[in-house]
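Suppose a colleague, Dr. K., hands you the sequence of a protein chain of 477 amino acids and asks what its three-dimensional shape might be. Before reaching for any lab equipment, you can write down a predicted structure in token form. Begin with the sequence itself:
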Amino acid sequence: MQGFTGIDLVVLVAYLAGVTAWGSWLGRGQTTGTDYFLGGRSLPWGAVMLSVVATETSTLTFLSIPGVAYTGSLVFLQLTLGYLVGRIVVALVFLPAYYRGELSTAYALLEARFGSHTRRFTSAIFMVTRVLADSVRLFATAIPLALITGWPYPVSIAVIGALTLVYTYCGGIRAVVWVDAAQMGLYLAGAAVAMVMVQTLVPGGWDAALSSAYDAGKLQVLDYSLDVEAPYTLLAGLIGGAVFAMASHGTDQLIVQRLLTCRNQRDSQKALIGSGIAVIVQFLLFLLVGIGLWAFYEGRAFERADEIFARFIVEELPPGLTGLLIAGVFAAAMSSLSSSINSLASATAYDYWAPLAGARNDGPRILRAGKFFTLGWAVVLVGGATAFIPLSRGTSAVEVALGVAAIVYGGLLGAFALGVLTKRPGQRAAIFGIVLGVVSVVVIRDAVAWPWYVPIGATVTLIAGSVAGQWRTGARL
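The predicted structure, expressed as tokens, is then:
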């Protein structure tokens, strides 16, 4: 057992100080809300692609996905096939609709189609969902910091939140995107280091690890079961994963905001589809790390699956490498948290504050309000992560976060489908469909696995909204 040494501390502090200073510097010259929240619509697609991947995977990939493979197999990878299919649909169907107007948030599209109440209603759903899901992500990141320092989880959560807030507040979306891109490289390097160490620490290296994992059935990738209560089957992955990605990447401001920072629609499409390919590779890498840890610990049971990789980093790696991998954990966490804070602030500023304050076209006022909302949402996320502590035992944070998002994503996706694919349903019909879609998922959530939540919710919303639209033909309800 190596522990966390002075060298590791130097590596970690140097990283945290450097990334915070760089992110703050990237925010220079901002004068309007468009600069702060959309990067002046001038960011390169490659950086946006990496930012999308870093945002959606973050700490959950770094810590939880190895734990998923440790306690199970590689069947989680089936979801990523659907993720790529869903991105392609969003790139071909949703992005052209976004780029037909100078939209500031994902929900501005719904205002143009249905009205301001629908925009605010869906934006509120996004806010609640993002707070719940990203509070879980922030808690997962506090695990290694608490292990290293011995601090209580609330203190660890507050430290991470404060460091991330500095460059998010100063740098805006430009800092978020560029820092995301750099941090993704760091935590992928951390995963590569872990795989090298498994080769060194496991007797017989990866050959022995994979051989024993194969004998135990842990290298299974495809599950052809038709059981709707099983979360990781080929059918659930292709259908549930695709529809989930359509919702998360086509209706969630967290991702859509990044896509709107690209220079044009074509660049946005390249960033989105490219991120789908990158995610497949990335998930495979972290699942294999989990298989290697299973071989190293010989299947030993842990209280939390999310602690397994964190303990390996802190207890087994040599000085310097431990600091590098812990920096990778922080990189993953900060990319997700900064993205969440900025997207929540942008939705609040554009969907609520600007219309009510008569500042829709007042860039400097939106910038000032946006920074204020950035501070507020950071406090809310830290509080939410702290509240998750007593609920976390025996759970995998990645599955909790995905399950929370999936409950409401169907309603959001169904609303966007109504807006893009239909002409008749009006505002009340759309809101009615969303509510019924979300309620239907809440009712059946214990009967089916979470990848089916979004297809069911979206289908109910689309049908209910369309039927309700027939009641007031030719008029907005």
